[in-house]
Amino acid sequence: MSDEEDISGPPPSARGRRQSVCAEPFNPNAVEDEDTPKEQTSEVMDAMFERKVTAEEKVIEQGDDGDNFYVIDGGKFDIFVNEKNVGSYNEEGSFGELALMYNTPRAASIVATTDATIWGLDRATFRRIMLVAAFKKRKMYEEFLETVPIFSSLERYERMTLADGLYSEKFSDGATIITQGEEADKFYLVERGEVSIKMQKDDDVKEVAHLQKGGYFGELALVTKKERAASAYAVGDVTLACLDVGAFERLLGPCMDIMKRNFTNYEEQLVKIFGTSLNLTDVRT
Ligand code: 1OR
Ligand code: 1OR
Description:
Elements: E1 5-6, H1 38-47, E2 49-53, E3 58-60, E4 68-74, E5 76-81, E6 84-90, E7 94-95, H2 98-102, E8 109-112, E9 116-122, H3 123-146, H4 156-165, E10 167-171, E11 176-178, E12 186-201, E13 204-211, E14 216-217, H5 219-224, E15 231-244, H6 245-251, H7 256-274
Antiparallel strand pairs: 1-10, 2-9, 3-8, 4-7, 4-9, 5-6, 5-8, 10-15, 11-15, 12-13, 12-14, 12-15
Bound molecules: ligand 1OR (2 copies).
């Protein structure tokens, strides 16, 4: 499991692209901070029940209805999707939230590979707490979104639905966020830290932009449906708010004109920086 990311709920369609996305999709500690009412925290604690599991026991069967959400207290587990081992949990993490959040059948089977101890939380309590978590998520991102220049024209309600679609990813200094030439699947906002955008042309690599909190990137390839035009790297520790392509298309219509206007700027800079025009921003049809 990676601690690159702290994700509090990408939609199910976002799953499967990156191993770590599913590793910690719901953070049960989120219900334990200051602004969660004490009664609510103790309600969760009271509702949680300990379950001992023996090696090879199947805790969750893919396709079943969801009953409980589980937090691992100790032990190891394999994750199977369509009988294929797609990952594992090693002594920590949580699973079983998807079916409860989205009212869908269990998306994977979870099998203990050692004797293990897990803590379960029933569906009703989980959902009640999740609603609180979703509310908190809106609140948390709303403040940030208010500071993002490109969203200044959005209505409050539009920013809230946008917050529902966002999830945070963390990158440490020097980590690659986007690789030029790759296929695009999401849009990024800089929540914390700085991001360096570098473009390679022939043997020449140049920094073409340097983004700070409130900046955005990764929109170009989503709009043009081309490969990524540049690479993005973390400068220092970075937290990004991400939006998957579907939500981007659904939610950012109102900002599209501003984004497209900026494409002209990319083209102009391209000529200045590399001395060529590249047809960067034509929309592929
Ligand atoms: P659930 O309620 O659907 C099975 O029950 C649980 O397995 C699921 O919630 C997640 O908590 C957990 N895809 C779907 N579910 C996963 C995955 C996963 N990993 C863990 N769970 N993938 C594996 C990624 C490493 C994607 C596979 C394509
Ligand atoms: P993307 O999806 O293509 C890389 O992934 C991102 O880098 C891109 O979206 C933009 O959001 C961002 N030219 C192209 N992409 C740029 C540029 C840029 N700056 C930031 N990005 N230029 C710099 C203009 C100041 C022109 C390059 C010479």
